[in-house]
Amino acid sequence: MHPIVFAIFFVIVGTMAWGSLLAAPWVPTLSAQRKLLVDNLDIDSAATIYDLGCGSGSIIFEFADRYPDAKCIGYDVALFPLFIGLIVKLRHPIKYKNVSLRFGNFFTKHFSDADVVVAFLMQKAYPKFIATLKRELKSTALIAIEAWPLPGIEPMKTIKGEKLVPWYIYRGL
Ligand SMILES: C[S@@+](CC[C@H](N)C(=O)[O-])C[C@H]1O[C@@H](n2cnc3c(N)ncnc32)[C@H](O)[C@@H]1O
Predict the structure, then answer these.
(1) Averaged pLDDT, 40-47
(2) 129-to-20, 84, 112, 161, 163 alpha-carbon distances in Å
(3) Could you tell me if 47 and 72 are in contact, meaning their C-beta atoms sit under 8 angstroms apart?
(4) pTM reported for the whole predicted model
(5) Which domains does the chain have, with CATH numbers?
């Protein structure tokens, strides 16, 4: 294999493996699952929204479609899905001018300006994730967790759809 091809392959596979080890592999959320959240989450039209572990940013783009005045930010460490998201943004620079997809480990980032945090992660990451949310979030921030509830914390609301996994909604932590 050509060294450049090998290097690209190594970076793609390596960063995806890094995401899996940190909190979850890249498993994109279904379109119906994304719509279920955006349709049922009552937020300010100018909210600052983060997807922590955004993959290709599909949830962030869903919010940006619905709320053109919102600030929509995604973090991921896996370069391949991030690259897909960046292509989507570049193809629609005006429509998605409020979208920012960033490379980085969200455990080490600051997002204290968040009004909404969305995450779809494996449960093994929850203890560290909860500590990160507690460190960063204001008490009014909404947290939307896909599939598995945060342990020991009562959600203020659960959003369920037919043949979809639940969204667990928390306010502050
Ligand atoms: C299950 S996928 C969810 C993707 C996207 N949120 C969605 O729902 O379509 C989880 C993503 O989190 C990313 N990830 C895991 N730990 C991370 C971390 N500490 N910092 C940034 N991204 C992380 C993985 O690379 C993966 O793309």
Answers:
(1) 96
(2) 14, 25, 14, 25, 27
(3) no
(4) 0.96
(5) 3-171 (3.40.50.150)
Provide the 10 A C-beta neighbour count for residue 161: 16
> Whose C-alpha lies nearest to ligand 1, atom 26?
26
28 lines ligand 1 (CB under 6 A): yes
Euclidean distance between CA atoms 115 and 112, whole angstroms: 9
For residues 79-99, average pLDDT: 97
What confidence score (pLDDT) does residue 121 get?
Answer: 98
pLDDT surpasses 90 at 5: no
Name, in order, each residue with C-beta under 8 angstroms of 93's C-beta and a sequence gap of 6 or more.
none
- Say whether pLDDT at 39 is over 90: yes
Probe ligand 1: pick from 79, 117, 120, 124, max atoms within 8 Å of CB?
120
